[in-house]
Every structure is written in structure tokens, then in C-alpha cells.
Amino acid sequence: MNRVSRSPRRIVAVGVATLAxxxxxxxxxxxxxSTTPKAPENKIxxxxxPSYYPSDYGKIVDAAKxxxxxxxxxxxxxxxxxxPIFRDFQKKYPFVTNISANNLDSDEVFQKQxxxxxxxxxxxxxxxxxxxxAWATYADAPDRVMAYQSPELSxxxxxxxxxxxxxAMSMDPVGLAYNAQLLGSDPTSIADLAKIVSADPAxxxxxxxxxxxxxxxxxxxxxxxxxxxxxxxxxLEKILPSARPESSSGTQIDKITSGEYLAGFFISSAVxxxxxxxxxxxxxxxxxxxxxxxxxxxxxxTPKAPEANTAKLFLDFVLSEEGQNAVAEGGLTAYRDSVKQxxxxxxxxxxxxxxxxxxxxxxxxxxxxxxxxxxxxDKWNGMxxx
Length: 386
Description:
The protein is α/β, with parallel strands linked by helices.
């Protein structure tokens, strides 16, 4: 039984054909706090795959061994998130000795791949990003993603395949963050934040941050929230006049921690979780109970991947139980039901427990017309503080 199926009213269609690049990637410096929960050991079965895989799966492994032990990934995912995934994948397939993962802006993943393909020199094997509308636009054209059906698909929820041949590596929420020492309240929803700001507008003028909707990530999460919560504009019209847009979650969390901002919303959990551990008692991150937007972090194999078989092994691994445990350890959100909720691992079930099942807004990979994009961004930006 799929425990994470969702009501249709919370499935909202957002996307765009062309948007300016938005930066989601940040580098978080410093070591984790000694109080950071440590994930349990992820036991890896070297060179062994599940019994439900095709009987000839060993041929893919053998072919991968001949590809030189390399794998090249273009993504908007931080190295801190990748580390446990690469560690455990190389435990499983130790012949893969060189994994390169570029840290790019959300839309730049596709811009780089397209420009290199045009020159006949496209080294990327895998593309990974949660820029939903950019993925939808990129993969809408033919021959942009290799046709491959993962044997893990039958073991995953029905939303695991976000587009043909594109899978969700993780299901990552965006949420509400605040400086716990300075805000003076503990909001659990966007509506709560709206009440706090309305009670003392002068205090919060320029002290709230949100995502820049001119970028693909900011547009997707903001439009997703509005489409998924009937009362969204009522709250936003109270908050946005005090808000300033930022183009990356990393910038937002740094400025909230320092006190430049008192609170912010639509911040990526992938960078907020590690910051909450490092800045315990100062920085707090919550899933809004009136609407927690969740983005599938799409992963697909490039059509002419130089290491195509190694790429297939990697894609299957991140969807497997072993891989999903590593995904969660790295600060991303695993959604496979068999991944247990324990300290140090973040799961889809955690969102359900903390925000409520009806609060989850999953964003499908669909394209939004230019006219609809303009109408939304004009309304949003028109409310922002000047």
C-alpha cells in the first residue's frame, strides 16, 4: 500500500518554458555540530543487487566495468548532500573510482548540457536538479533523455517517475525558517508568519526574505504554494510588503542566522537541515502546516552518456533502499517507504508527521505558459516591499 498518495487538490501544475537561472546551490562551510544526529550505518552489499532485478542485470555491471570507472554528473546539488551517496555507491561498485559532480545553478544544468551537445562534446552521464519547470521544458523535446526503466520503479510510490525516463532521486520540501533568538515567536505556517508581521509592520520592514520568482526555483515553489493553498494570497499580501527576494537558499539561511533577516519562507530543506544542526538554538526550520511544497529532484541519463552503463547502476542505486538511506543521510529527503525515520535521516514520512498529510503540495513536471508566468510574477513582485 502506498502510504504517501495525495489528494488531487494538492497536486498543482507549475512550470515555464523560459525563465532566468535561479541559484539553489550553496556551499555550507564548517563542520557539523557535535550535537548533530548521526545516521545509522548504511550496510552496503558489494556487487549484489536485489532478486527482483532482471536476470541479465549482470551484463550492465560487466559493461560498466569496461567504462573506465568514471561517472560525470551535472547537478544543482551540494557536495555535502552528495557525499554519503557517492561513498556508498562506490562501496557497492568499487570499480567506479572517479565521480565528478558539478555544482551548477538550477537552469544551468540544462544550458550546459545543450551547449555541449551542440558542439559534439557532451561529457555528462547524468543530469540532476529539482528545477521542475526547467526539466519539463528540457525533456519535452525528443532525444534529450536516455530511455531507461529502472527495476526499482515497482518498489516506489506512484510519483517516483516524474516524467518518462526521469525519476525523483529525492522529494525535497521547502519550508519556513527563522532566527529563534530574534523573532520572538514560533510560527508553524505561512499564515502564522502573516499574523506576526501584521502585528508590528515596522519591526519587520525589510526583515523577511522569500525566493526571487524571476528564477525557475523561486517561481516553482511560490506558484506551487499559491495553487495548493486557497488562502495563500491572503497571507502573502500581509508578508510580501515586508519581504526582500533572494536567489538562493544559502544566502537566505546565512542572513537569517546573522539576524539580517528575522524569517524567510520557501527555503530549501537540503541546505536548511544542515544549518539547523550547525546553528542549534539560533536557526530553526519548519514545514508550513498550511502548505509544504515538495519538489522531486529529477534524475535522468543523458541520451549519449559516455558511461551509460555506470549511469544506469547509479540511477538504480539512488532509488534502491541502500541508496535512499544514503540520500537521506546527506540531508535530502528519501521517499521510499522502507527507509526508516530515525535521527540523522530525513524522510517523506517526516513531512507527513510534522506538517500533516493534507499540507503536502507536490509539484508535477509540467510547463506553464509564458502568459501565466508573467501574470503570476507581476502580481507577486507588485506586492513586494520597495
